[in-house]
Amino acid sequence: MTTLFWEEEIETLPRVGLESIQLRRLKHLVTRVYATVEPYRRKMDAAGIKPGDIQTLADLQKLPFTYKDDLRDNYPFGLFTVPLDDVVRVHASSGTTGKPTVVGYTKKDIETWAGLMARALTCAGAHRGDMVHNAYGYGLFTGGLGAHYGAECLGATVIPVSGGNTKRQITIMQDFGSTVLLSTPSYALNLAEAMDAMGVDPASLSLRVGIFGAEPWSENMREEVEKKLNIKAVDIYGLSEVIGPGVAMECLQTRGGMHVFEDHFLPEIIDPDTGEVLPPGEKGELVFTTLTKEAFPVIRYRTKDISRLFYEPCPCGRTLVRMEKVTGRTDDMLIIRGVNVFPSQIEHVLVGIEGVEPHYQIVVEREGNLDTMQVRVEVSEEIFSDEIRVLENLAKRIKIEIKDLLGVTCSVKLVEPKTIQRSEGKAQRVIDNRKI
Ligand code: DLL
After folding, report:
1. CATH 2.70.98.10 at 8-331, yes or no
2. Is any ligand 1 atom within 6 A of the Cβ of residue 326?
3. Is the model's pLDDT at 98 over the cut of 90?
4. 327-359 CB burial, b ≥16 within 10 A, e <16
């Protein structure tokens, strides 16, 4: 029943074949977008580029970038390439500032997406017969419905449980025999904690694999979730502007980087400051061009996510390029006294320390001209009831390890178990109180 691939031919296509598909699709896309979307046409005209100038994949670099602000400026439907009559669904991402960004799908887009999510689920070893516990939020967020249609397309049974109501989720897992869990990694930890409180042994459940994404998570966090839920954990990446979940997916065999579904999404890595495309293997900002989307294609969309593309062959047999786990975003990178700090680096340190729970928050303040960073972290019940000296030593150790890794001095505040707010979707890790 288990198959290794969803679309073997395309997933294992030699690069020349893949690149020829990409080029054909790219030319078609640019021609269509130029003809139908005024803001894209204006930008291309300003850059002196016509669709006919795209003759090779490298010519992609001639095209202007698309930014989140372009979506906001054309809110809500200004970048759609088809009449609204042909749009069968919209999603939106909330964003912390300003208007949300709205994306649309034709009937064919929804089918493409479901197929890609079925491909992603297969990559994670899911199959027909699986009981897919979908705890991604349903609604305007793409996680819930995106994964839902993919699991149905795969032929698995979906439990559309959405986020929240954590105790009930665990009862459902027990009673329905959930085998595949889909959620954010922070919510997975929340579930593990609730199981513990309810006296439910994860080994007594049927869960086999967790497909976690929608927020950054470290390798240490992976180990932690795997141990606590007695499962294998794989990473899934996507963003609403590009399609939603199902842009890239880790394979269960290797669990080392996510295969980008390149027949649909063309990735580039650029230097976020200069916009220059970087050579394979270098770290920078991910940029995506959608090759097959009808209602809402994007050309060179700046994701702000930081990653790396690597072309080494994967033992699973897929030839699709892999992207490294996203370590952070150009916009959640904190600059503390001139040093670049990503919350995921702090998480990496914390999760590696015994007695510390993976629930943390980073609070940044500015005192005079000086930035200060405080890491608030929960400790386990046992440690918390220990002597003051033990707590002091623990705080000191965290401080030293963060200093060693990042070169930044921070203060560490150990807080009581269960005092940092639990997430039901994406966790909020940073509180930046600097007014800059
Ligand atoms: O989070 C889509 C999604 C749903 C992906 C479910 C995976 C699973 P947005 O709400 O538009 O879409 O947020 C997209 O989330 O630019 C990244 O910064 C972050 N992100 C998504 N997946 C990962 C991941 C969905 N695996 C933004 N690792 C992206 C790190 C991720 N960050």
Report:
1. no
2. yes
3. no
4. bbbbebbbebeeeebbbbbbbbbbbeeebbbbb
